[in-house]
């Protein structure tokens, strides 16, 4: 029997075809450029493509004819226990330059492996052991059993939460270690999470409206929405493929000044740094005399190298003495440098963006956000106060 090209099957076929293509392109890019995140996104896209496959084939009448029906029933297209972990590993490989899947990470794959084993048992039993179908006596695809659909939804929600937590931790580390945090926040990844969240909410909504997931005719709009959203995820991921820039667990030099941590009466933790004023002045000299802030790629490691100490100590020094994270600390001096130039009428011979770039900012958007944050005024509003 040939593929039945109806309206529904044809639409899903388009998404199926593009899903396969993007899976291949992402994997190819990951291999060529040694980008782990591309490989994980390739697998995520492929799993989403498999997810819509039974309904695409169902609308094409393959599930209503033999021998297609008997063959397709034994293929576990919907890997609901695998989509969540792959999303989580993708998030880690994208954000963490030191990410490598370890033995303990394989525990996340156990449910998917168990389900694959269950599918294999169903296949062997119904095809080779019993004379008549035992597991498929009801004529229903096991991928659409109620328990599996609910457990799969819970699994994907759980791993979305884990991914979001990892992303928030990444943001915190970025602001503590680099002076260009705004440019490596992977804001498109936030849209990725939103798209995946919408998928889960739609799935929950359609599940409540009609829990009979095996009824092909009633699920088209859900699978159409799912296809559009995962296509957006694949397209965005492919166009924004980059390597992770910072390690989540950076190594720390052991030869560092002693830092003592004490509990206060208010149950807050304070860090006591020996010779605070000396270290503070040395750090200020790098800003005011050496003007290290003019380096748009400045990191906490660069500062630590200049002061012959380690990154953890510098972060603690900035946090406790200046009450700022490293990113805001460096941007403060960049903003002050811009203000000084504006007061000296530098805008008459240079553009505002040109001044910002000279002072260490790497983009107009980052400059505007930092200036507003530290002065409560936009650059143009500040210029107006000088008139």
UniProtKB/TrEMBL annotation:
Segments crossing the lipid bilayer: 6-27, 39-59, 71-91, 112-130, 146-168, 188-208, 220-238
Matching Gene3D superfamilies: Homeodomain-like
Keyword terms: DNA-binding, Membrane, Transcription, Transcription regulation, Transmembrane, Transmembrane helix
Gene Ontology molecular functions: DNA-binding transcription factor activity; sequence-specific DNA binding
Name listed for the protein in its UniProt record: Transcriptional regulator, AraC family
Coiled coil: none
Organism: Dokdonia pacifica
Domain HTH araC/xylS-type: 282-385
Transmembrane in keyword set: yes
PROSITE patterns in alphabetical order: HTH_ARAC_FAMILY_1 (PS00041), HTH_ARAC_FAMILY_2 (PS01124)
């Amino acid at each position: 029997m040939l593929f039945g090209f109806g309206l529904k099957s044809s639409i899903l076929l388009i998404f199926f075809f593009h899903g396969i293509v993007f899976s291949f392109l992402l994997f190819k890019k990951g291999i060529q450029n040694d980008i782990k995140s591309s490989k994980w996104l390739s697998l995520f896209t492929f799993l989403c493509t498999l997810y819509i496959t039974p309904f695409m084939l169902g609308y094409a009448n393959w599930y209503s004819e033999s021998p297609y029906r008997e063959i397709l029933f034994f293929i576990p297209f919907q890997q609901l226990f695998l989509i969540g972990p792959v999303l989580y590993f993708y998030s880690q490989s994208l954000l963490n330059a030191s990410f490598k899947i370890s033995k303990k990470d394989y525990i996340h794959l156990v449910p998917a492996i168990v389900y694959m084993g269950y599918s294999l048992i169903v296949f062997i039993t119904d095809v080779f052991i019993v004379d008549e179908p035992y597991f498929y006596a009801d004529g229903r695809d096991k991928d659409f059993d109620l328990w599996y659909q609910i457990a799969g939804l819970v699994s994907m929600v759980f791993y979305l939460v884990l991914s979001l937590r990892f992303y928030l931790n990444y943001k915190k580390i970025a602001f503590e270690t680099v002076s260009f945090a705004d440019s490596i926040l992977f804001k498109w990844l936030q849209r990725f999470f939103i798209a995946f969240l919408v998928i889960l909410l739609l799935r929950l909504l359609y599940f409540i409206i009609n829990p009979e997931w095996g009824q092909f005719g009633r699920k088209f709009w859900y699978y159409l929405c799912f296809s559009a959203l995962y296509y957006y995820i694949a397209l965005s991921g492919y166009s924004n493929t980059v390597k992770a820039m910072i390690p989540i667990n950076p190594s720390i030099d052991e030869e560092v000044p002693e830092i003592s941590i004490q509990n206060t009466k208010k149950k807050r933790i304070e860090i006591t740094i020996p010779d605070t004023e000396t270290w503070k002045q040395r750090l200020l000299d790098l800003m005011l005399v050496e003007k290290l802030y003019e380096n748009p790629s400045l990191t906490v490691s660069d500062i630590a190298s200049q002061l012959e100490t380690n990154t953890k100590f510098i972060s603690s020094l900035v946090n406790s003495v200046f009450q700022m994270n490293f990113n805001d600390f460096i941007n403060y001096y960049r903003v002050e440098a811009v203000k000084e130039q504006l007061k000296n009428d530098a805008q008459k011979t240079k553009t505002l963006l040109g001044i910002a770039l000279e002072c260490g900012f790497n983009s107009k958007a980052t400059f505007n956000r930092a200036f507003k944050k530290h002065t409560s005024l936009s650059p143009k509003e500040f210029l107006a106060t000088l008139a």
